[in-house]
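Worked example 2:
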Amino acid sequence: MNNHEINEILIKCGVLLEGHFLLTSGKHSNKYLQCARLFQFPEQSESISRVLAEKMKKYDADMVVGPAIGGIILAYEVARQLGLKALFAERENGVMTLRRGFEIEKGKKVIVVEDVVTTGGSVKEVIKLVEDLGGIVAAVGSVIDRSGERAEFNRPFDSVLKMDVDTYDAENCPLCKLGSTPYKPGSRKFK
């Protein structure tokens, strides 16, 4: 599948939103990627996840872990296509953890996946969790890498699609200067 075909699927599924958005990082943007919309459509989700699974196959991992909420379905679908175990991590009292009886045995190789990587914060939390439990993070994968090469995980990182999306600090946001108020479409709350 080429980038044009991938973009067509993302547009068809309503993943790319335009407006004035407050991102999880606290930055503002005129575009927002709502990958949850992709996962409404099993056939398209499977196609996009297959591209990522093919890229992750070479890491010969034992399991795939994704952060809740964005990485849950992706972790499942990538793991399914690779014939691996799928887990998800979630925050409990503000700390990324495994719950629901999920375990990572010491020495197991893990692929960490996320729907969209901007700053890489959630992925870094999952990497720390996996390593604290004795797992080995073999690679990181995402549907969309919008980090502009700024997300650093100190291990291989690949995505289905790289996308440049402008972001602004709140005090320098041109949209705010025009009188617009940002909207927060994501799932994480600010403290």
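The two ends are 40 Å apart (CA to CA). The longest helix spans residues 42-56.
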